[in-house]
Amino acid sequence: MAEPQALGAIGPSALARIMAGIRDRNLTQEAGPVNQTPDEDEPGHPRYHHRARAAFALSRWNTAVPHRYANATTTHPDIQAWADRAAANIHDAGFLVINGAIGTGKTHQAYGALRRIAATGPHRFEMIAVTAPDMYGRLRPGGSDKGSEHELKQYARIQLLLLDDIGTEKLSEFTEEATYRIVNARYNSGLPLIITTNLLVRDPAGSRASDLVGRLGDRLASRLAQAAHVVTLDGPDLRRQDAS
Ligand SMILES: Nc1ncnc2c1ncn2[C@@H]1O[C@H](COP(=O)(O)OP(=O)(O)OP(=O)(O)O)[C@@H](O)[C@H]1O
Ligand SMILES: [Mg+2]
Q1: Structural domain total, the chain
Q2: Residue 127 in contact with residue 162, Cβ under 8 Å?
Q3: CATH number at residue 146
Q4: Domain for residue 216, yes or no?
Q5: Test site for ligand 1: of 67, 108, 131, most ligand atoms within 8 A of the Cβ
């Protein structure tokens, strides 16, 4: 019995017949010129790929932030400049403290800054935004499935951390130590941190209850003084404007 031919195998005579057929039908073609310089909106152009990365980062962003702040844009020039520094080099930005009275737009501006950074591409998207009371809740024993040390390391090491509403948590030795460990770790690693707060950065009356520096303690105050850019929002309560 004849050996079965392997599927797809072409013997030398079959190949010669195919080549002759191609010659007879004049099917040979010179390769045409290849477009080596794609336009901005074509794959291959760096701006096309940058835009694709930014769109991906923003789509992740939209699923990760509270609905109210999903489209937040920062309008404050100092906060825009801070975000641009962070986007260019995460280690250049330092800390950003946004303070001001209730409803002046601190959280909106903070999310706007994160969004501006996220829009530069997914390599800048590792971020956590959390209110201070929620963060301390997760750091307490039993507060998270992964354990409080794991949580603490995350807050200390994530590329970008927004700590919203510092000053609304109940002060205790526990909150002081946790804040110290996180802020100090970020300071040592040169990682940015955004803090929003109703507290004054330095209360001239020296009241610890309304003074961020007094509340965080002298060791953190010294680090903040060196590493923080403070922006004070002093407009009206925007929530009341919404209602009118
Ligand atoms: N630039 C803005 N454009 C549109 N809406 C804004 C803007 N800034 C703030 N808002 C809206 O105004 C309201 C108050 O803003 P936001 O929550 O940021 O204030 P806040 O200073 O963080 O207040 P709180 O001290 O109570 O935390 C929100 O509903 C927010 O969506
Ligand atoms: Mg707020």
Answers
A1: 1
A2: yes
A3: 3.40.50.300
A4: yes
A5: 108
Residue nearest to atom 14 of ligand 1 (CA): 103
The per-residue pLDDT string of the chain (244 residues; one tens digit each, 9 = 90 and over) reads: 444 444 556 677 887 887 787 777 766 666 666 667 888 888 888 888 878 877 777 777 777 788 899 899 999 999 999 999 999 999 989 999 999 999 999 999 999 999 999 888 766 668 899 999 999 999 998 888 888 999 999 999 999 999 999 988 888 889 989 999 999 999 999 999 999 999 888 777 777 667 888 788 888 888 888 888 999 999 899 988 765 5
Look up tokens 């526990």; give the residue.
174
- Determine which residue's CA is closest to atom 23 belonging to ligand 1: 103
The pTM (predicted TM-score) of the whole model is: 0.78
240 lines ligand 1 (CB under 6 A): no
In-domain check, residue 127? yes
Q: Does residue 117 contact residue 81 with C-beta atoms inside 8 Å?
A: no
State which residues form the domain around 227: 78-243
Q: Are the CB atoms for 138 and 100 separated by under 8 Å?
A: no
CA 132/CA 244 separation, integer angstroms: 30
Instruction: Establish if 63 belongs to a structural domain.
Output: no
Residue 227 contacts residue 187 (beta carbons within 8 Å): yes
Residue 24 lies in a domain: no
Contact 223, 183 (CB under 8 A): yes
